[in-house]
Amino acid sequence: MTNDLLKYVLRRADSELVLGHRMSEWCGHGPELEEDIALINISLDHLGQSRSLYQYAAAVDGEAKTEDHYAFQRNERDFGNFLICELPNGHYGNTIARSFFYDVHSLLFYERLVHSADKTLAAIAEKSLKEVKYHFRHSAEWVIRLGDGTEESHAKMQEAIDEIWTYTGELLTDDELDIEMNKQGIGVLNSSLKDAWYNKVEAVLNEATLKIPEGAYFQTGGKSGIHTEHLGYLLAEMQYLPRQHPEATW
Amino acid sequence: MSEEQLQRDFQSKLDAEIRIEPKDWMPDDYRKTLIRQISQHAHSEIVGMLPEGNWITRAPSLRRKVALIAKVQDEAGHGLYLYSAMETLGEPRSKAIDDLHSGKAKYSSIFNYPTLTWADMGAIGWLVDGAAIQNQVPLCRTSYGPYARAMVRVCKEESFHQRQGYEIMMELAKGTPAQKAMAQDALNRWWWPSLMMFGPPDKDSKHTAQSMAWKIKRHTNDELRQAFVDKTVPQGEFIGLTFPDKDLKWNEEKGHYDFGDINWDEFYNVIKGNGPCNKERIKARRAAKENGAWVRDAAAAYAKKKQNKSTEKAA
Amino acid sequence: MSNTNDWPLWEVFIRSKQGLNHKHVGSLHAPDAEMAIKNARDVYTRRMEGISIWVVESVHMHASSPLEGEELYEPANDKIYRHPTFYDIPEEIGHM
Predict the structure, then answer these.
(1) pTM check: above 0.90
(2) Residues of chain C contacting A33 with CB distance shorter than 8 Å
């Protein structure tokens, strides 16, 4: 039971950490100064959520672990984040598409998680939900502007949507752990979010004059630690200092 | 009103410590000096995001990571406040940024040094932000209202920057031998460039006298530099680090530290564009602008479409 | 070089807490009002400085000229009847 909860908390934390890390790579390189600031805010929110979750994981784990242990001392196969979170930033449209799909999921997920029987998770969900509403607004507004902006931006945005679409299936399916945690009243079934997710995504894409990709095959694996090749590099960069100086504190 | 009368009114405001506001009459050179100084200051904040941004993805703990990101974000915010103050003088931000990218406008040369190790995040926060605060606090009383108000915001927010830098240094200095060596090495590399941040010695500074008369600047370069040294040296000694200056010692008589000669050749060379990272920094800023062009254009096009639609509706 | 697609400038006003006026805090660039409000939230309320934001495109701001200061503001100097202390109220009435 503890083990299940730990794993469940960790993989949500991993998603937030990995996406927050990716967003932070934009720092100083955004398309406009104001947008730099917005992206950094969102990155900080994701990282903040990951910290709350890792800290809770440490409490559940009970082996005197810290948030940093989970972030810096685990290997690729231990990470349970959604694949979509680890995709490289690409151009601004890719980053926006990635965030948009994830934000819609988070919004629906946290809306339900606030009712979790696990009081800590419910509290984290409540705090996160406020942030996620803003993230969704940010990414959706940009999907609309890029989709319905210029011809060039429309093409770029459609391409980004098509490319990333294959990673959205994972957001809406359950594995054994999801099912078990839901049975215990702690977790949320991703599959229960499916209709709402499609409706929300479709509404925004319609307004953006973009098409929903059809008949796609969906990549999965993130939750069981089977990742894209990108994650290894991300972790190598992120973890190198603590791993190089295992006895140090920072 | 005659030009002479306007000039007299302007001077009497300065004498009475009354702020000059955007629509007030001001001498052309005052306006130009302000545009130059404020835009340089804004550029420094923006370019300054890069050397620290370089370590965001490698920060060694989650706490350090979010603190560093928040700090770099503040720099973007400060750049924005300052551009905003500059725009009240009639200079568009896009023009100032073009001047930065073409090399016509300057920024603080300290950001042309590379950040090689994690300890550089400590050294930058402690020394570079320390020097910046020394420079900036008096600017909260600068004579141009929007600039002074921007600086009040900047200074209020900046207070955490130096503390987070010093905390990084402190942690390293009391850490493993490798960490301590990292901290010492960072101090060795950043100390002299930090002293250069106050600009050339008073005797060689071509702008100081006029800027002081206009109360844009409130202290000379050398005064600020001395105050910085006096404040910083005990902080470094407290955590057991050594300053890379054999002439550095307390002068009981003067009540100040004496310190060695600054290598002004290096300073002028970095300003001229020969610093280790000048080209990279500008290249990164240009790339951000160029890669973002289609995004900015899209948003502008969308806004225009929306506007047209709402006028059609109204008609 | 600068082009016509540069985002326009917006003036930002923030109400720091319920019961206070919105106060001018600075400006920023944004393509439209929606984005201007979002950007203002990110730029000017990073430390919880605000609960309400107004944005006005800078070209729509009209300002008095400082040289007209005398005509615009000095007449108010002698309209002291606009100030409550102009009126004598017996002390027994207390605060009014």
Answers:
(1) yes
(2) 29
